[in-house]
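Query form — protein 2-keto-myo-inositol dehydratase

QUESTION: What is the three-dimensional structure of this chain?
INPUT:
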Amino acid sequence: MTRPPQPPPSSPSAAPLPGSPPLSRIRVGSAPDSWGVWFPDDARQVPWQRFLDEVAAAGYEWIELGPYGYLPTDPDRLAEETGRRGLRVSAGTVFTGLHHGPEVWERTWAQVADNAALARAVGAEHLVVIPAFWRDDRTGEVLEDRELTPAQWRDLTRLTERLGREVRDRFGLRIVVHPHADTHIDGEENVARFLDATDPDLVALCLDTGHYAYCGGDSVQLIETYGERIGYLHLKQVDPRVLAEVVARGTPFGPAVARGVMCEPPSGAPALEPVLAAARRLEVDLFAIVEQDMYPCPPDRPYPIAERTRRFLRSCGV
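ANSWER: The C-alpha cells for 2-keto-myo-inositol dehydratase are given below.
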C-alpha cells in the first residue's frame, strides 16, 4: 500500500492553543494491539505483513513490536521490513511477575533480554513492562490474590528497580512500567504506591489512558501529580457504558475487551485533548502510541479505525 499525503505540521487543524508550547515533542505511533494482536501466533490475528502495510498506510511512522515473535525477530529483516514502509520502532513489550521474588529473576531476565536486544537493534529507546495478571485475561481464572502482601510489594519495587538498571546498563533502554487492568499496578492507589516506592532514575511510567480510566484513574491528574515519572503514553479510550457493565459484573479484562470496553476515539473516556495538553506542559519528549484493544476482531476492522484515529489526533495537534 502507498501512504496517503499528510497535512503539513502547520495546518490549521494542528495549531496549538494560544499561549501553549508546541506539541512537536510528542511523537505519535500505533501498535499491533490496535490490529487485534495479543499473541505471537494466533489464527484470529492479521499476518504481520498486513499490520505493517496498514499501519504505514494509515499515516503512522512509529510502531511498537507487540508480543515477541509476532514481528520478525531477526533484526536485519525487521529493519528492512519496517524501513521500506517508512516505519520506526519506539519500544518492545514484556510481561513480568516480579512480585514473586528473586526466584523468578532468571526466568524473567531471559525473556526480557530477548525483547530488549531486538528493540535496541532496531533503534528503540524504551521497553514497556507490564505486570503479571492476577486472573487470566482469556479465561478469567483467578491465578492469585488480587492484593499484594507487604513482602510482595517490596519484591515488586526492588526487582523492578533492578530491571531498570540492568536494561539501561546492558541495552541502553529505559523501562516504562504500564499500569494495566487485572494486574497489581492498576488504579490511583496502587500506581501512587508503586511510584512512591521506586527510584525515578530507574523506573518511569507508561501511562495508558484507557487502562487507567478502566481502573478509575484520572490521567490528567496523574500527569500533573507525577509528571517527572511519565516516560511514555498509550492513547486509548473506554466506553463508559460497557465499562459500567463489566465492573458491575466483575468481568475479566479479556472478555471485557471482546464486549467492546475499549472504543474508538473520540467517542469514549478520557477525553484525549486534555491529556495531550497536560503532557505538552511537561515539555519533554514523549511517545504517544495508539492502542485500541480489540482481540479478537475481524481482519478488515482495524485499518479504517486507525485512519480515523490518526485524523482525530491531528486535529488535537499531534
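ADDITIONAL NOTE: Residues 1-23 have pLDDT under 50 and may be disordered.
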